[in-house]
Structure formats: structure tokens, C-alpha cells
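Quick one: structure for this chain?
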Amino acid sequence: MPKLLIIQTSPSFDQNSFEVADKHIQSNGHESVTLSSVKVSEFEDLLISHHPDIVAIEVEKKSRAHALALAAIGWDASVPVVVFGSDPADDPIWYLANPEFDIVVHSGLGETLVALLNLTAEGNLLNPIFLKHELGIAYRDSFGGPIVNEPRSS
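Got it. Here's what it folds into:
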């Protein structure tokens, strides 16, 4: 099963949201590891040691630069990068304008991450034909244009 590495960049993000998402991910047969306070200088080594299939980075507006630096390392390592949090949910187009970010989760964190892990297991994570059916995400179409899908219901 695919492995997800979740990076918490903001100490103010609701810890309960991480725990609920992590339980949902693991109850659906996937593996996830959550790390906080990850330094850019350490991130490449973390990718090597954890060997994730997807990296999900939590972002608030004040941590955009840090998230972009981490995402660039993930992108260089050919690991798909998903972002979530208040800022990506409010401004998914900004994130998709940066090639380092592959997918924005804007609603239903746990369910959406499980759906993305399922697509990864099928080899279809970055395929727009499959992404167009997933609620709660924004992604790029086959021409590179941003698409924002409907949110997941709470």
C-alpha cells in the first residue's frame, strides 16, 4: 500500500485534524507518518529514510515560502506533493501556479487523502481523467490549467 508523509509547517494547525486524518488513512489500509518542524536542510534525508509515495504539506499563508522550499525538494525527488490547510483551501490557484505543488486538498482532509492514496495504488494519482472525479481537490488538467473540484461534504 502507498505511504504518505505528512509535514506540519504550522504549530497553530489543529492537531485533532491530523489525528482524525491519520486514523482514517490507517483504517483504510494505508501507511502515514506525520512530522512537524521539518527543516529544509533535513527534508531530502527524510524523503530517503521514509520513502513516501506522496508528501502532504500543511500550509498557512505565513508558511508559504517554507512549504515551497520543501515541495521543491519533493519535486526534485519525483515525489508527488499535495498541499492542504487554510491558505491552499482559500487560494488553490496560487499553489497550482507553482509546478512544485501537484494537488491542493481544499476539503475533507482524511477522506481526500485516502482517495489520493487509492489513486496512487492504481498508478493514477496525477492523471486528470481520474482526478476530475475526486471531490475536495484542485489540480492541473492535461494542458496545465487549474481545475478546482467541488468540495467534499462535511
